[in-house]
Prior knowledge:
The complex is a heterodimer of chains A (340) and B (318). Chain A is mostly helical and 340 residues long. Chain A has a single domain (27-330), classed as ABC transporter involved in vitamin B12 uptake, BtuC. Chain A has helices spanning 9-39, 46-71, 79-101, 105-131, 137-155, 165-171, 173-176, 184-202, 204-214, 216-221, 226-252, 263-273, 285-303, 313-328, 331-339; strands at 160-162, 178-179, 182-183, 254-256. Chain A has a two-stranded antiparallel ribbon with strand order 1-4. A two-stranded antiparallel ribbon of chain A has the order 2-3. In chain A, α1 (9-39) packs across α15 and α3 (79-101) packs across α11. Chain B has a six-stranded parallel β-sheet with strand order 2-1-3-4-5-11, with helices on both faces. In chain B, strands 7-6-8-9 form a four-stranded parallel β-sheet, sandwiched between helices. In chain B, strands 10-12 form a two-stranded antiparallel ribbon. By secondary structure, chain B is an alpha/beta fold. The longest helix of chain B has 20 residues, at 40-59. In chain B, 45% of the residues lie in helices and 18% in strands. Chain B contains ten helices and twelve strands. Chain B starts with a helix and ends in a 15-residue tail after the last strand. Chain B folds into two domains: 23-135 and 272-287, Response regulator (Rossmann fold); 137-268, Response regulator (Rossmann fold), CATH 3.40.50. The radius of gyration of chain B is 22 Å and the shape is elongated. Chain A binds chain B through residues 40, 42-43, 45, 47-48, 51, 55, 153, 156-160, 162, 176, 251-252, 254, 256-259, 299-300, 302-304, 306, 310-311, 313, and chain B through 36-40, 42-44, 46, 162, 165, 189-192, 196-198, 201-203, 205-210, 212, 223, 226-227, 230, 234-235, 252, 317-318.
Amino acid sequence: MTSASDSTASKGARRASIDLKTLGPAIALLLLCIIGFLLNPAFVSEGNLTNLLTRSAFIGIIAVGATFVITAGGIDLSVGSMAAAIAGIMIIVMDNAVETLGSGVPTVLLGCGVAIILGIGAGWINGTLTTKGKIEAFIVTLGTMGIYRSLVTYFADGGTLSLNFEVRGTYRPVYYDSFLGLPFPVWVFIAVAICGWLLLNRTAFGRYCTAIGSNEAVAQYSAINVDRVKTLTYIIQGLCVAFATIIYVPRLGSASASTGVLWELEAIAAVIIGGTVLKGGYGRIGGTILGALILTTIGNILNFTDMISNYLNGTMQGLIIIVAVFLQRSDWKLGKTKAS
Amino acid sequence: MHMRNILGALAVTGALAFAGSAVAQDKIKIGVSYPTPTHAWAAGMNWHAEQAEKRLEELYPDVDLILVNSPDPGAQASALEDLVSVHQIDALVVLPFESEPLTDPVMNVKKSGAWITVVDRGLSQPGIEDLYVAGNNPELGRVSAQYMKTRLKDGDNIVVLRGIPTVIDNERFDAFMEEIEGSGINVLDHKHANWNRDDGFEVMQDFLSRFPDIDAVWAQDDDIAIGVVAALKQAGRDGDGMFVVGGAGMKETIKGIMDGNTLVPVDVLYPPSMIATAMDATVAAFKSNGPVAGRYILGATLITQENAESYYFPESPF
């Protein structure tokens, strides 16, 4: 890294630091996987790896949406509650549609359609209240977080909403079946990730998000329709939550007040571990995906060992998140280069 | 503390305003206070409380039961004050949100001369309540372990999924381990699944990847058991005599036991309907010629196909 000649030293250092920034989350994930393998070789069994990927899909898909919101300088705390509310309403709609549509594919498609409309609608509410209502995103989404969460509690009468047994039979393969060796949720995750990457890196919309996140006033003067772009980021977030919910519901066929608790924080953590800047202006979809994988892998590894007390799970998670971000904020490497 | 004083002051003001309209009646007034249902077990409790209210008021026209639920300890404290000042209750049935902050408010109700029945969660000072009704957490663990011992032999392997790290969880787990000890059954590992279906599913998936030979699962709770069963089915390891023992008494689980489900063949009772037991006993304290006082600890009954029907309430949300 420091072998560059004097004249290119600073340039080389910058390139090295950028590479490290990109590689940080990947290195952290690799380290985690090695630790997992050393603890128990069954960690790399095909079954466990598919479980890991499938499990990451929920947080991963939501985190792709969160990358847009955060890049544009916003925050969305309502995603976990939103997922629970969408799951609940989906289940109610599908259960009621059994009589007219039967328990086949049309009912499931209706449920998915409802989820997508609700996701877009909920995102639009968050976006419009933030932009037109001139309320801080933190407050708006803190409010809607409570609203969506209590809605699902209300619909479920405090209990659990369960999907009709036959509809579950039709819907079940969406979570449990595979295509080319990968479960469907992983394919959805891949598709959402590719679309997200293209949208953020290859379109004007993506550049507007970055511009707004780095300096909203300048973006405004540059004739960017700031309100529209910001609202769109929340709509994308809502849509991602809807996709995540569509693959979540067939897993256990139920929704309750405990569905999706703390998903918002996991999604935000995944985004930040991945290298996106929390205050906006710089976003990385690839990093977000690694971030989601890291978070799921931590939980997985902790279940693979009894070396660490169960009560310290949170400590381990916290430490690994901080170390992952530390690796990625590579200023410490840069300092070393300068010193040499 | 300060907040509670303000709430208390508000409650008193409210009580004064209503004092004129509160006509003294010779009915036996019993207040029933519990947390607002935000999860399935509590929703079941709410349902059973409403059922018991209907049944008891029909049976005894001179008994008036007043159900109040509160979203947090502070609200419950002021609800108790209202029950005394507005309704002038003769007895209180209370499932405290938390032991510590509600001990004083319940003591104040006691000072008004009312009969006190405490349900499930004890107060932090002894001797306040006239009657204590609760489920039996250590017994739940012990009964589960005893069932495991009847089904498994020396050298068989089990995994344990625990609840949220709390005293309740520890009591259940410690009693289970104590009973299992010396039986030759190996407890491969235990992890917290937080009384939650999703966590139950994920923890069980990992146990299945980690341990190639598992003979049975103690899931401690019916919600966790649902996640465990989904993971077993996904991995195709739900055959070969594998079985899962949950706990609580969820209606779907009990229905499954009635129908002869071999994967979840039994359940251990920790019923939300204990609030109804408490209400019955409290009314009996006024109506029965037999003495009612002391501690009423419910057995952690093992529900099997033979007795499942008497624990099945299809209308209850839990």
